[in-house]
């Protein structure tokens, strides 16, 4: 009797392994998270401050990165684009800058969007 139960369980397990299932993912339902954020960002061993808001009319984010110097433009761009991709963009999209970053009031101001 025990052998029969073990045999039936084995057949059931094999049957479950061979069944095919499909997982459909609809990427069009993903949306950009337009909620404003203020986050500390850890980058290259230091912590910086990132603040951003979504500009409805432009479809872009106004981003401010504090804690960097005037010669650290590339670091500011890296922080802004990677953080935007993580916090706001749908899976698989990265942030990309629009126009040139500007430095003033001890922070970098960058406009960026997902894509």
Report on the structure:
The protein has helices at about 1-20, 75-85; strands at about 35-45, 45-55, 60-65, 95-105, 105-115. It has about 120 residues and is of the alpha+beta class. The protein has a five-stranded antiparallel beta sheet. The model is unreliable at about 15-30 (pLDDT under 50).
Which characteristics define this entry?
alpha+beta; five-stranded antiparallel sheet; 115 residues; single chain
Secondary structure class reads: alpha+beta
- What percentage of the residues does DSSP assign to strands (E)? 35-45%
Describe the global form. elongated
* Termini separation: 62 Å
Strand order of the largest sheet: 1-2-3-5-4
Low-pLDDT segments, ≥5 res: 16-28
Order of helices and strands: HEEEHEE
Q: How many DSSP H or I helices?
A: 2
Query: What kind of sheet is the major sheet?
Result: 5 strands, antiparallel
Rg (CA only): 24 Å
Helix amount? 25-40%
Overall strand count: 5
Give the overall pLDDT as a whole number: 82
């Amino acid at each position: 009797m025990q052998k029969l139960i073990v045999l039936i369980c084995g057949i059931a397990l094999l049957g479950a392994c061979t069944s095919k299932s499909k997982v459909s993912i609809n990427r069009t339902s993903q949306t950009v998270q337009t909620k404003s954020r203020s986050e500390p960002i850890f980058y290259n061993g230091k912590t910086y401050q990132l603040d951003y808001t979504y500009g409805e009319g432009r479809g872009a984010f106004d981003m401010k990165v504090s804690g960097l110097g005037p010669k650290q433009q590339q670091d500011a761009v890296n922080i802004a684009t990677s953080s935007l991709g993580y916090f706001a963009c749908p899976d698989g999209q990265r942030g990309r800058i629009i126009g040139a970053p500007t430095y003033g009031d001890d922070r970098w101001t960058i406009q960026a969007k997902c894509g």
